[in-house]
Design goal:
The chain has 664 residues and is an alpha/beta fold. It is 54% helix and 13% strand. The protein folds into 5 domains: 150 residues, no CATH class; 188 residues, 3-Layer(aba) Sandwich (Rossmann fold), CATH 3.40.50.300; 72 residues; 71 residues; 137 residues, no CATH class. α19 crosses α20, α20 packs across α23 and α27 packs antiparallel against α29. It is globular and about 100 Å long.
């Protein structure tokens, strides 16, 4: 980009600005290049604004990753109103052919409380652009260059642009998926239906909004049906058709005089639906309507939360109607189904009835971001926040998180939190690895959420993933060979990938999560692996048991009696040796020797202190502890067979769980 210097373009016209506003523009020109004088904006009869465009000089380019022209809107009102932001949108649309920055803008207002009002307004809208506010009074008097720079820092560097939890309704922070949007739009314009499937939080709903925007740009029409809304899935199939018509009528503000819901009887619903959707089609200037069904699982047989869809034939009758009318009226409407589960188009029969949409709707899985798409999103947002990210990190983000945009954003948000507060700053591989470790430690619930569809609907596929994570490759390959559809699902969701007849995790964060969950469940163990597992688990359990025993005895009996009970159980030389020690020192491995078996004895002798933690079967608990201790001793002397290893796992697993639940 050519070097830009502060000042004015020679053709800038400022005649429509007041003298105070000209003073402000002159002040801006000391740090920016005023490229266009803009003009007036009329939003209704009473709202009038002025605007100009300015280019960033080298400092602002470097600090905030700004290259395009910035919109500056002047609001000459004493009280700031939200429609001022509409003025920004108005300018952005008017200047579409120019290199105008969409993510940020400047508002200069006569409201002295402009900062507070903008902060309050944008706080409720995470998808809003970055708006840097100034009051007239601030810029109409002499200020140094750092005043403007610091105001930009306050609004760029304090906002986490990665922290989006919900779907993106606007295109401002929407990245990737352009090819997929065009594919669906082109299919609709060719009067063809489509399906999109993906794991939770892969951006399906954001993609729907992107499709609707793309359709609107070419004058096409769409209607959104949220299938998880009880107002829809609690209705029977015939009344669900009425709901669709009502939504189309309302979403497009057509105000058509439609028939009442009561007239949508099972016998008449298909006839009335055909008549009324044709009326809507005519009212929309004969533009084909894309009906989008989001969260399709909610009206799918076997898995819908409403019994008439899950156990009855409502799914059959509903799709018989839509498919029949689509075949009759392909120029009137098409449909797009979106969800996590392809069951609705994969099963041929439903309760001995043909599935009307079996293999009738071509669907595709949402692909993960590739490295260029990850780089585009992370680099753009990161640099605006003052984060210069090493090139190597884009590839690692894509590999570790399988191109899953939501998970990538979470990790980047963590990187932002742990990076230096002084911006701009460089994010290195070290920072990334720290952020990834924090994600693995604190955000396992997000991985569980992503895997939820497999856990709920595809138990066999989920089991295969666990085999692959814990290294039971033989069992994974046996199922893959016997049931190719299982791996088709896993490949489609982008969790695994295949190369030269070998499978591996593509979503490596899922591998790490499952590996931790399954690390002590592998079946094909070598003798060395058995011994290592026994040592790891027993050595991890002992200090936690030691802590529980110490605290429970102390809480129940107080330090003196608790100490007496401990030394009494230890007996012999230990009783004499430890009697003079403080109670806390008895459980300090640096100062005393209370062994694993001593802990078993203490728990047994004082069972009332521990029964609420370990259950009410004292003998069963004691037997488990004996096995854990004995297997470890035996492991030093001989090779452990698989039967003994299995018994050890059966004994230690529930105790580990009880200990973790108690200690939190």
């Amino acid at each position: 980009m050519a070097t830009v210097y502060p000042g004015f373009h020679k053709k800038v016209i400022l005649s429509h600005f007041t003298q105070e506003e000209k003073t402000i523009v002159n002040r801006l020109s000391q740090d920016w290049y005023i490229s266009r004088g803009g003009g007036r904006i009329y939003l209704g009869a009473t709202s009038k604004y002025k605007y100009l465009l300015m280019k960033p000089v080298a400092y602002f380019q470097e600090m905030f990753n700004l290259e395009r022209e910035i919109i500056v809107v002047f609001s000459p009102y004493e009280t700031f109103e939200t429609r001022t932001l509409d003025a920004i949108d108005w300018v952005a649309k008017r200047q579409q052919s120019l290199r105008v920055e969409r993510i940020c803008a400047v508002v200069i207002s006569k409201d002295p409380a402009i900062e507070e009002r903008v902060h309050s307004l944008l706080k409720s809208d995470p998808e809003s652009p970055i708006v840097v506010p100034f009051a007239y009074s601030e810029l109409s008097r002499p200020v140094d260059s750092y005043f403007i720079r610091n105001r930009f820092k306050n609004y760029f560097y304090t906002r986490d642009l990665f922290a989006f939890e919900g779907p993106l309704k606007k295109d401002l922070y929407f990245f990737g998926r352009t090819d997929l949007i065009h594919s669906v739009v082109n299919r609709h314009l060719s009067n063809e239906n489509s399906g999109l499937l993906g794991l939770r939080k892969t951006g399906k709903t954001s993609l729907i909004f992107g499709i609707s925007r793309a359709l609107a740009q070419v004058g096409a029409k769409s209607g959104f049906i949220d299938c998880q809304n009880p107002a829809f899935h609690r209705r029977r199939w015939n009344k669900a058709l009425y709901y669709i018509i009502q939504e189309l009528n309302q979403q497009h503000q057509l105000n058509l005089p439609l028939v009442s819901e009561d007239e949508y009887t099972e016998g008449n619903a298909p006839i009335i639906f055909e008549r009324e959707i044709c009326q809507i089609y005519e009212k929309l200037d004969k533009r084909n309507i894309l009906i989008i069904f989001d969260e399709i699982e909610n009206i799918t047989f076997d898995i819908s939360p409403s019994l008439h869809w899950a156990e009855g034939l409502d799914f059959v009758f509903f799709w018989q109607t839509l498919r029949s009318l689509y075949q009759k009226l392909p120029e009137v409407f098409t449909y797009l189904i979106v969800g996590t589960n392809p069951m609705c188009v994969e099963r041929a029969t439903i309760k001995n009835k043909d599935n009307p949409i079996f293999n009738q709707i071509p669907f595709e899985y949402l692909p993960g971001f590739d490295v260029p798409q990850t780089r585009e999103m992370v680099r753009k947002l990161g640099r605006i926040m003052g984060l210069k990210i090493d090139e190597i990190i884009y590839g690692k983000l894509t590999d570790d998180f399988g191109g899953h945009p939501f998970l990538i954003r979470i990790v980047c948000s963590i990187m932002n939190q742990i990076s230096l507060s002084e911006r701009p700053t460089t994010v290195t591989k070290v920072t990334y690895e720290e952020a990834k470790a924090l994600f693995n430690r604190d955000y396992g619930s997000y991985i569980e959420m992503v895997l939820n569809v497999l856990q709920r609907f595809y138990d066999d596929e989920y089991t295969m993933l666990k085999y692959l994570a814990r290294g039971d490759i033989r069992r994974f390959n046996e199922l893959a060979a016997k049931h190719p559809r299982y791996t088709n699902h896993l490949l489609g969701y982008g969790i695994i990938e295949k190369s030269h007849d070998a499978f591996a995790f593509k979503l490596e964060s899922v591998r790490d999560y499952l590996r931790e969950e399954e690390k002590y469940k592998k079946l094909d163990l070598t003798p060395g692996e058995m011994y290592r597992e026994i040592s790891e688990r027993r050595n991890a359990l002992e200090p936690k048991l030691r802590l529980i025993v110490r605290n429970q005895l102390l809480a129940t009996y107080g330090p003196e009696e608790a100490k007496e009970r401990v030394v009494r159980v230890l007996g012999g030389n230990k009783r004499t040796q430890y009697s003079a020690m403080a109670y806390a020192d008895l459980f300090d491995p640096e100062k005393s020797q209370i062994l694993f078996d001593d802990l078993r004895k203490l728990i047994k002798k004082n069972w009332d202190c521990f029964k609420n933690i370990f259950g009410y079967d004292n003998e069963d608990f004691e037997t488990k502890l004996k096995v854990i201790n004995k297997v470890r001793v035996d492991a030093h002397a001989k090779t452990i067979d698989f039967e003994t290893m299995s018994h050890f796992r059966v004994c230690i697993s529930p105790i580990e769980r009880q200990v973790e639940e108690f200690l939190g």
